[in-house]
Amino acid sequence: MKKTLTIVVAFSLLVAILAVPGCKRAQGPVKLGLGSVTSIAKSRDASGDIPATAQADTTVVAVILDSKGKILNVNIDTAQTTVGFDADMQVTSDKDAEIKTKKELGFAYGMNERSEIGKEWHEQIAALEDWMIGKTVEEVKNMKVKERDASHPSVPDVPELTSSVTITVQDYIAALEEAAANAVEVKNYNSLGLGIIVSIDSSRDATDTAPAMAQVDTIMAATAFDKDGNIAGTVLDTAQARIPYDAEGKVATDKNDAVKTKKELKEDYGMRDRSDIGKEWYEQVEAFEEWMTGKPINDVVMLNVTDRGNPDIPELTSSVTITVTELIQAVQEAYRYKR
Questions:
Q1: Across residues 256-272, what is the average pLDDT?
Q2: Which of 111, 131, 201, 249 has the lowest tally of Cβ within 10 angstroms?
Q3: How confident is the prediction for the chain on average, in pLDDT?
Q4: How is 205-261 classified by DSSP, letter by letter?
Q5: Structure pTM?
Q6: CA distance 142 to 131
Q7: Domain residue extents for the chain
Q8: How are beta strands 155-156 and 71-84 bridged, if at all?
């Protein structure tokens, strides 16, 4: 009798765990996707005593879909990166400083004081992620929304979210849709991580012969892990947002133009002609993704690289000559934040 009671209690606990929102369980292969949306629309011209400031906002979504297209797990984050200039269009931002995403900033992001519901960005996005679990991408796209103001045209207008999410969600949904469209099959999935590394190191000052330019490189890794923490699959990409300025400190590009990632650019990225192995960036990164699959995270982190940062092992010398240091850092961060 005691043994039977123990079994019943254990089964009840299992059922309770599986019923918790956000709990992920899958039988067989699933699909892993990475999607992003980048905007430079908030970049600012120099005006009077106010110097120019470039801004790139990259919204990133990592998702796991089951065989029926339902969301088993989702991770959303945004890298809101600024590059400041002085009156002479010299970069004033610290190029070596760590740039944190909104989730990494947590309460330091400072939204809760301005929020009508008193919730910080990471709290609101967590509520949105939980709401997405169990739904198809189409169901998420069909969410009823309302315009709060010009800056918030798509705020959730469903009873489950009105007290927890007042941020505008159009970019999150667009990035989710892209992640699902590009999803790849993964076996042995147990947890999902999203890693984002941001660099402004390639931004340049104005000189006598060239105007200033801000460059924001957002390196992204959506990575699935098995029950032992090995990499079950990973999808890597980089959004390289360039924001040129003219001699007067005005943005010299259309701020509303779409910023494509390196994978989206494919042949247009233009690496093939400069590559020692005649391979484009997306081809090389796909070979790197394949090499990672099935390996423990430490094997990836400890990969031998050259002084240039490209792989220095026989398995990759003919397929990967790009710098992989920051891609590895993004995968390592995905492992750190896996759930």
A1: 96
A2: 201
A3: 92
A4: ---SSS--EEEEEEEEEEEEE-TTSBEEEEEEEEEEEEEEB-TTS-B-S-TTS---B
A5: 0.91
A6: 13
A7: 29-336
A8: unpaired
